Amino acid sequence: MWNNVIRDIAKTKARYISIMLIVALGVGFFTGVKATSPSMNETAEEYYKNNNLMDIRLLSTVGFSDKDTEEIKKLPHVRSVMPSYYSDVIMGDDGTGRVIRLYSVPTADENGIAINQPIVKAGRLPEKKGEIVLENANFNSGNYQIGDKFTVESKVNGDDTKDILENIEFTVVGFVQSPLYVSFDRGTTNIGNGSIHMFGLICPEEFLSERYTQMYVLTDYSQNLDGTINKEFDNLIDELEPQFKELGTERAKDFDKEYLEDARQKLNNAQEELDSEKDKAQKELSDAEKKINDGQKEYDDKINDAEKKLDDAQKQIAQGEKDIEQGWKDLDKGIADGQKKIDDSKEQLKSAQEQLNAAKSEYQKKIREAEKELNKGEREYNSGLAAYNEGLSEFNNQILPAKIGIAALKTSYDTEKNKFENITKPACEKIIESSQNAINNINSQNEKLNSKLESSEYLLQRVNIRGEIAVNERLKKTNQDIIDRENKRIEDGQAKVDEAKKAYDDAVSEFNAQTAEPKQQLEDAKRQLDEAKAQLDSGKAELAAQKLNAESQFTAAQQQITQGQTELANGQQELSAKKAEGQQKLRDSETQLKKAKEDYEKGRKELDKQKIDGRKKLDDARAELEKNRKEAENKIGDAQAKLDRAKEKLENLESPEWYFMSRIDNPGYQSLIDDTTRVDAVAAVFPLFFLLVAALVCLTTLTRHVEEKRTEIGTLKALGYSNAAIKSQYVFYAASAALVGCIVGIVVGIFTLPYVIYNAYGIMYELLPLKLVVPIPIVLIGVVTAFVCTALTALYACQKSLKEKPSELMRPKAPKIGKRILLEHIHFIWDRMNFTSKVTARNIARYKMRFFMTVIGVAGCTALILTGFGLKDSITSISDKQFGELYTYDMIAILDEEGTAHQKQSTLDFVKDNKLVEAAMLERQVSIEVKTSNGKAMQDDIYLFVPQSVEDMKELIHPRDRKSGAAISLEKDGVIITEKMSDKLSIKAGDIITLADDHRNYSVKVTAISENYINNYVIIDPDYYRETYGKAPLFNMIMCKMTEVNAENESILGSKCLDNSGIAAVSFISGSVSTFQDTVRSLDTVILVLIISAGLLAVVVLYNLTNINIAERVREIATIKVLGFYNSETCGFVYRENIILSLCGIIGGLGLGVILHRFVILTIEINKTMFSRTIHWQSYLYAALLTAIFAAIVNYIMYFKIKKIDMVESLKSIE
Amino acid sequence: MSSFVDFKNVYKRYRMGEVTITAVDGISFEIEQGEFAVIVGSSGAGKTTVLNILGGMDNCDEGEIYVGGSNISKMDDKELTTYRRYDIGFVFQFYNLVPNLTAKENVELASQICKYHKDALEVLNSVGLGERLNNFPSQLSGGEQQRVSIARALAKNPKLLLCDEPTGALDYQTGKQILQLLQDTCRNEGMTVVLITHNQAITPMADRVIRMKSGKVVDNFINPDPTDISFIEW
Prior knowledge:
- The complex is a heterodimer of chains A (1215) and B (234).
- Chain A is an alpha+beta fold.
- In chain A, 69% of the residues lie in helices and 11% in strands.
- Chain A folds into 5 domains: 1-48 and 662-813, no CATH class; 49-261, no CATH class; 263-652, no CATH class; 847-886 and 1045-1050 and 1067-1215, no CATH class; 891-1043, no CATH class.
- In chain A, the strands form 4 sheets. Chain A has an 11-stranded mixed beta sheet.
- The longest helix of chain A is centred in the middle third of the chain and has 196 residues, at 459-654.
- The radius of gyration of chain A is 75 Å and the shape is elongated.
- Chain B is of the alpha/beta class and 234 residues long.
- Chain B has a single domain (32-59, 76-231), classed as Rossmann fold, CATH 3.40.50.300.
- Chain B has 6 helices and 10 strands, in the order βββαββαβαααβαβββ.
- Chain B has helices spanning 47-54, 77-87, 103-111, 120-126, 142-155, 172-189, and strands at 5-16, 19-31, 36-40, 62-67, 70-71, 88-91, 160-164, 192-197, 208-213, 216-222.
- Chain B has a 6-stranded mixed beta sheet with strand order 6-7-8-3-9-10.
- In chain B, helix 3 (103-111) packs parallel to helix 5, helix 4 crosses helix 5 (142-155) and helix 5 (142-155) runs parallel beside helix 6.
- The mean pLDDT of chain B is 83.
- Classes of the chains: A alpha+beta (1215), B alpha/beta (234).
């Protein structure tokens, strides 16, 4: 039977081991992480107890006496009191001004209790003066060796170190670790650069102070209570405060009486004397000053006058210069214009001349041609004329004889004619004429007779008258005959003449007829010639006329041109003249101006000289006065300073006060507690999750295991084994795996995880080696859970199988039958899926349990990794956000509370004057309690913040809304509170809250809620403060932003500030930031642990489930292999599901991770801090990728398993 | 030209701890293309081993096996897979259907990986299951399941159809129907079918009978006159 179990285990090694592993993982992680916090706590507790860490530290403004010690001892609950000394001095070795706090070596009281007993890490404690032990942890003390010299500077804040310590040079005799300092935070001081660098211990005798500087008190609580790192202890200690305060007040009265009365009187007298002296000096000085001021006034007036005049002159000169400049410009422009016109005209003339010349040459050419023509005509004419003359003379020669004949005829004719006309004719005509006369007489008598006849009526008479008329008619007839004869003779003569004439005429006409033709020809020629001549002449005349005309035109044109040129020349001349004139004028002006300038310069120089002289005289006078005044002031000031110091000392002594401090005020004490708490919170979440997943995996695996064994169960049952026996076999299988897993897990978990985490914190803390506390209840929870998940599951699965009949059991359980899945009814999607997708979808639906297991496992893995990265994001970014974005100041200077507002202002100015300082502002910051109307209250780490001016605040702090990132401004009628507080107290904008400050309550309205990560603040407008509090804010700090932040600048600025008597202490943000970075570094380890465990979780879960999956489907896989699926296809067939499930897991895990992250953040937050809620996108990516990688690893391993499946064996197995 | 299937002096040994069992002891036989061959023998005669080797599911230790001219005894795993994929159709005694796939999907599972596959619906129709396409195996009777199994093998359009006791889990009548189906397939489609059985009664229906005993071929003869299955009774 048991052999069977053993063989079973051997056969299913992988399964058995994976159950073991998952149990080990779950239980180990659970117990290991859970053990860390108690172990850390216990380590600290033991450390504090063994070394008697003080419960209370008392300080006093005047120190303590032995009497005080006695009185304190009498108080209830006080177990031990140790008066001691401490003093902050400056390390004298390196000039960096770093501060060492020297304590007196703890001394044991009568019971042998030495409070704050240091642990000597090397060497020994100092035994005599001149010896010192240094702290062990500080990296800088690494430079010192035992036997080295250690020196401190001889001056501390202007005082001689020798006034405080007997020696300033020590021999290092050892190194110690003190319970006062658990972290590397050494606290602050009011000397040097404001922060304490290290501590050291020397003999009490070294301190010269006659009174103790502090008291350490040990109460019976720390001895009697189980633990001190808890609220109960803190509260008990706090309850003791009033009794110490009371004692302090009582003791102060004694002190006053003993020491102060006399001194006060003396001081008053001295002050009076000084004041009268001061007044006298003041008066003398005022007189002198008045005189100087009068002189100054006169001097100023005069100088002003002169300067005014000079300025006028200067103005005029400037105007003149401007005018001249303008004149030059105008002149140049005029000249240029004129010149341009002239040039244009010149150009025109030139072109006219050219045209004229062209016309002339054209004309002459034409004339020449015409003359040529004319000459030709004349020549022709002359030759024609010569020919004609020749012809004519020839003709004349030819007609000469004819002419002579004619002339002869003519002569005869002329003679005949002459004879006839001159002789014959006149003679005849005479006779005719006488006969005619006689006729005419007769005619006239006849007429008279005719008229008488006609008139006479008497016939006789008529016949007589007729007889007479007839006689007259015969006489008339005779006369008429004579006339006719004579006429005849004329006619004959005439005929003869005519005949001659006719002969002549005939000759002539014959001649003419004969000569007519040649004569005609000649005449024609003559006529032609005459015509040619006429033409020629007219041509000549015309030409001449034309010539005359053209020439006259040319002449006219030339004349015009010439005239134009003349005019131009005139114009040019005129222009030059004008130019010269203009230039001359301008030059004259310039000369004048220059002179004026020179005069002005001279005047100015003169004035300057006078000015300097005057001023020098005045300055001399003033310097004299100043010297006198300073002398007087110095004298008075010195006297006053002495008096003041005396007074101040007296005042400090006058109202001595005791300060009560508890362990929480020790640097680093609280942060260790916070960190421990944080580990515990993480421990609360993660391991449980692990345990849960482990349980689920065990459940599936074991159920499967039992199902696989059903045949065997059936056989055993058939063979008659009892149910219990059969059950025990499987329970044993499960329980043994769980047992081994638990043991391995618990041992590994408890002995590694606390150390790993503790070491991570060891970067920040200096404690003793971890004292491991095994948290028995936790271990029990782990073990019980493991057994429940394994043994009970096995039992349950068995039970289920055993209910069946052996015969049924003998048959293999049929593989899960195929079923239609919901998706198939959604045809829209189903029809679109390819074949393998359908198969996958149906497979996923078939094994729902495994589906959930896988998804949960993978999701868990992703969620854990995301939470790990997210935690780092959240915590890392708060210091960046707080000190990089929200608060941009670099230094806080704590002011001397006693200073007046004026003194504080001048301290601010002093700080602002430093060139390392970019901006600075006075502010008030005090711790307050906040209450809400619904009764909630919060008092830890809340500060009221009152800026001096809202305007200055904008440089230093930047309130904003976290979600939108929008800046928030400080209103005049309300306060801004920080987010953490608003969450804790559920305060919304618009609510009224009550500030409990100095035992009084003030109601204020909340106007906005600001993003903030460290501490809680109520920011209030100074005016609103005044209104609410009814008084002006008493500033107690200076916030200051530096130009460039580095260690050197901080050191310089720190010591500068502390030199100012108005500043009590300084602290730098960089210190807080680096502390933070240490925390973050320790987180890396935590995240690594998370990733490794998450990876293990994912691998184990996926391996297990894939394994089961393959086992259940081995026939199916063999079948498809037989069908000829390649290995990769076969794996794809199986893996597709894994991949889809992993993806689902990753997506679900990211969501789960966000929730888990939020949960963890909220859990580990303390009142003081708020962690950023944001996870960077990279973290999501890492978480998803890492999970995918883990899944891929499992799939890779499984590839070989699938490849190894033997078709023949697998298909055969059914028989 | 050699035969379609040619076993030449093939050995297969199994090592079980210290004992070596020779399952196939130097057998040689030939099967011609298109033949309906029956390998008959009692349990443990090595006939399943022969079938597994022939189907590329197992390797032989010695000897040479030619199928369609390729030497499958020299193939590595990958080549064997390819061989199974394209050349072989298997019909098992217990059908080996994928339980969460319907009849049609089971056929498609095989056909989708083959290049020259037949249409799943057609094949299912041809085996007489046209009505039960969308039933899951669990909703089918044994005979129907075996038909799906045959359809799955045929859909791949293999060169060789190997059947391992196809009627072993079926009743008499159903078994006969299945054998009829196989014989028809061989006759109508010219498919080479190799069937192993322990049932001597079936041998008359075969073209070739190979009788095995203790890993050796004891008889190998061609049946000149194969009987139709419907006339065989046992």
